[in-house]
Amino acid sequence: SPDGGSRSDRAPKIYTKTGDAGFSSTFTGERRSKGDRIFEALGATDELSSAIGLAGEFSSEKGHTFVEQLHKVQCMLQDVGSNIATPLSSAREAHLKRTSFSEKPVLELEQWIDSYSEQLPPLRAFILPSGGRSSAALHFSRAVCRRAERCVVPLVQAGEADPNVAKYLNRLSDYLFVLARYAAMKEGKEEKIYIKP
């Protein structure tokens, strides 16, 4: 080959073509339509992590110390995805051990929410997504988080995903809201409020 290495040295191709017919596999090995609500929830969770990644980059440029928390949240969202991709109806004991989701991360988010809330001025009006790039990106992440939660709730209600996953996403949207306000305050940026036209 032109680069001097043998074909077997090369990295595997990014495309597998296994999903071309519109089906994909869960962690339990089930083949389901890509339109299945499991993949809808996985996609929304992936989009959420991407939105948080963008918010993290903006926040990092401004020197915000909460960026490490956002990275930790992105790691937790990988675990959220693992739980969603392991439908309880077809999961074996080994799958459940590897992909269970505890309440611990939910409690951690609550601690973070409390610590930022204590530093914020009280809400007196409806806030529009605004307050500088970090804040606006965190608000955007919050909206994506709400959609991910709406995708996960039916899975939890059907007994296919852990209730703590829905609880985590519910708490995460509160965290992102509080963090957006905190970022605006730290940067001295004004939060735009709703004014009746």
TrEMBL record:
What keywords are annotated for this sequence in UniProt? ATP-binding, Nucleotide-binding, Transferase
From the UniProt entry, list the residue stretches annotated as the region Disordered.
1-22
Q: Which domain of life is it from?
A: Eukaryota
Q: What does the record give under GO molecular function?
A: ATP binding; corrinoid adenosyltransferase activity
Compositional bias (Basic and acidic residues) spans?
1-12
Enumerate the catalysed reactions: cob(I)alamin-[corrinoid adenosyltransferase] + ATP = apo-[corrinoid adenosyltransferase] + adenosylcob(III)alamin + triphosphate
Cite the Cobalamin adenosyltransferase-like domain residue spans from the record: 14-183
| GO BP term (any one) | cobalamin metabolic process
Could you tell me which InterPro entries the record lists for this protein?
A: CblAdoTrfase-like (IPR016030), CblAdoTrfase-like_sf (IPR036451), PduO-typ (IPR029499)
Q: Which NCBIfam families match?
A: PduO_Nterm (TIGR00636)
Protein family per UniProt: Belongs to the Cob(I)alamin adenosyltransferase family.
**What's this chain's function?**
Converts cob(I)alamin to adenosylcobalamin (adenosylcob(III)alamin), a coenzyme for methylmalonyl-CoA mutase, therefore participates in the final step of the vitamin B12 conversion. Generates adenosylcobalamin (AdoCbl) and directly delivers the cofactor to MUT in a transfer that is stimulated by ATP-binding to MMAB and gated by MMAA.
Q: How does it assemble?
A: Homotrimer.
Please identify the protein, giving its name as recorded. Corrinoid adenosyltransferase MMAB
**UniProt lineage:** Eukaryota, Metazoa, Chordata, Craniata, Vertebrata
